[in-house]
């Protein structure tokens, strides 16, 4: 394994469980605080959430955070204090910029089926921005074609969604068995496998819920061992510099 790659297995994640929620945390979150596991690059949160029918996060505040939501199964209903509302489903990427302050709620939109989604938080370059919201649908054919840039603030990137961080981008892919993709070259890279199994050159096999954190990644190659979905953060800076 490359010295700059750290594997974080699914079973080692902290878990928050309530009557309506099962949330697995890749980093410190809420009551689960580990001073050795607070972030990677500019990525502070990578929560893998399942919300039961009738459940959800009631109205709550955020500030100075870029919040990306990617639904894997089901539908998530969003409403915020700037007047934005809608339903997020698989393939519809959403970014909420908390900026100077925003209130929002996230509820399962189904009365019978759970919703499964990944929510990721990164720090914006500038604090106190006007709160904002953006969403964009990514066709299955595009996601199946290889690593696709979902959100980015990196100059020159062609991304579906703009990110208020000039050194960060989120990529995604839905891979058929045997498909091969090269991950980006970047000082900081975070690979998360929300479902399926893949093999990463120099690292080995990764399963559902596993993650790898790279420093100075040089286009590592990934092969799907079965149908899989991957989320990749490319980051050219870290917190504080």
TrEMBL record:
Keywords noted in UniProt: Iron, Metal-binding
GO molecular function, one term: metal ion binding
Residues covered by the Pirin N-terminal domain: 11-122
Signal sequence segment: none
Cofactor(s) of this protein: Fe cation
Chain sites annotated for binding Fe cation: 60, 62, 104, 106
InterPro entries, sorted: Pirin, Pirin_N_dom, Quercetinase_C, RmlC-like_jellyroll, RmlC_Cupin_sf
Transmembrane region(s): none
Coiled coil residues, start to end: none
Pfam family, one: Pirin_C_2
Domain Quercetin 2,3-dioxygenase C-terminal cupin: 166-235
Free-text cofactor note: Binds 1 Fe cation per subunit.
PANTHER family (alphabetical): QUERCETIN 2,3-DIOXYGENASE (PTHR43212)
Similarity comment text for this entry: Belongs to the pirin family.
Protein name: Pirin family protein
Organism: Mycobacterium kubicae
């Amino acid at each position: 394994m490359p010295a700059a790659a750290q594997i974080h297995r699914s079973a080692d994640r902290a878990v928050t469980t309530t009557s309506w929620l099962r949330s697995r945390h890749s980093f410190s979150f809420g009551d689960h605080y580990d001073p050795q596991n607070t972030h990677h690059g500019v990525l502070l949160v990578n929560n893998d959430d399942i919300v039961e029918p009738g459940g959800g996060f009631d109205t709550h505040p955020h500030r100075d955070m870029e919040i990306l939501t990617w639904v894997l199964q089901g539908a998530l209903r969003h409403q915020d204090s700037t007047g934005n509302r809608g339903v997020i489903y698989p393939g519809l990427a959403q970014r909420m910029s908390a900026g100077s302050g925003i209130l929002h709620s996230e509820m399962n939109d189904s009365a019978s089926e759970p919703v499964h989604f990944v929510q990721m938080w990164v720090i914006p370059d500038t604090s106190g921005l006007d709160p904002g919201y953006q969403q964009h649908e990514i066709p299955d054919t595009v996601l199946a074609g290889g690593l696709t840039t979902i959100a980015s603030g990196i100059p020159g990137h062609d991304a579906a969604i703009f990110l208020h961080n000039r050194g960060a981008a989120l990529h995604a892919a839905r891979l058929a068995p045997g498909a091969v993709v090269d991950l980006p070259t970047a000082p900081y890279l975070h690979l998360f496998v929300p479902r399926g199994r893949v093999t990463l050159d120099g690292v080995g096999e990764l399963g559902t819920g596993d993650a790898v954190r790279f420093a100075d990644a040089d286009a590592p190659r990934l092969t799907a061992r079965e149908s899989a979905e991957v989320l990749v953060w490319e980051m050219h800076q870290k917190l504080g510099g």
